[in-house]
Amino acid sequence: xxxxxxxxxxxxxxxxxxxxxxxxxxxxxxxxxxxxxKRARLRGKGILTNKISAVxxxxxxxxxxxxxxxxxxxxxxxxxxxxxxxxxxxxVHNRMAGTLAAKLGVEDGFKPANTIVxxxxxxxxxxxxxxxxxxxxxxxxATYEELELxxxxxxxxxxxxxxxxxxxxxxxxxxxxxxxxASDTGEIIISDxxxxxxxxxxxxxxxxxxxxxxxxxxxGDVISAYTQVLERLESI
Length: 236
Ligand code: C5P
Description:
There is one protein chain. The protein is 31% helix and 31% strand. By secondary structure, it is of the alpha+beta class. The chain has helices at 45-62, 98-104, 133-138, 144-167, 213-216, 222-234; strands at 4-8, 12-16, 22-27, 30-33, 38-41, 69-72, 77-81, 83-93, 116-121, 170-182, 188-191, 199-203. The protein has 6 helices and 12 strands. The chain is globular and about 45 Å long. Helix 1 (45-62) runs parallel beside helix 6 (222-234). Strand 6 and strand 7 form a beta hairpin. The mean pLDDT is 97. The chain has a single domain (5-235), classed as ATP-grasp fold, B domain (D-amino Acid Aminotransferase, Chain A, domain 1, 2-Layer Sandwich), CATH 3.30.470. The structure holds cytidine-5'-monophosphate. Residues 89, 91, 98-100, 128, 174-176, 198-200, 212 line the site of cytidine-5'-monophosphate (C5P). Cytidine-5'-monophosphate binds at residues 89, 91, 98-100, 128, 174-176, 198-200, 212.
């Protein structure tokens, strides 16, 4: 397939293809944390995030939540629908961990009775600040109607992913979900990746961390944790 590089990020590259409404996502081995301050190259990481993301996005598609994912092409690439980016990050928290726990002064991993959904402005220079709906509309990021849909899709996706991971003996602690407008139809769809790079995943029995926190907190064994996530998802 003829490809033209249109975006080069830390952890992935995006290529345009002949069909103007399709792109190819290429996952590489770079891992970054703390707004790109900490970075490394971990051999094989991109293969794992590509495969895990394909499983999770394909599962959401199958559950009737549209995502940009069409099919995995090989170890590192997947064919996706082209989108217009909506610069928001929606984080669904089943537990309070990381930044949220630190900000609100609760123990890392505190489990509230309710699910928490945070809307953030995706802007690295500003550190992805929390925004409310009025602020998001004022910035022209989305309309009120689109936000309504985005938040309800994020909640449903969070619930479905929680159920799927539970079948694999993994607890979904939190997950970050991004959205875009499909370039052909304009419909709101989930975009970008969903993987241990964008979720907190704990082993249900041991509470061992199986996600990017292994890199953030220098716990080691990042690749074997990601491999475990893939193998457990593939076994259900
Ligand atoms: O960093 P924080 O604790 O707010 O992250 C909450 C969740 O969102 C984590 O699973 C983290 O991996 C994910 N996240 C992300 N990309 C960001 C910020 C957070 O994938 N830019």
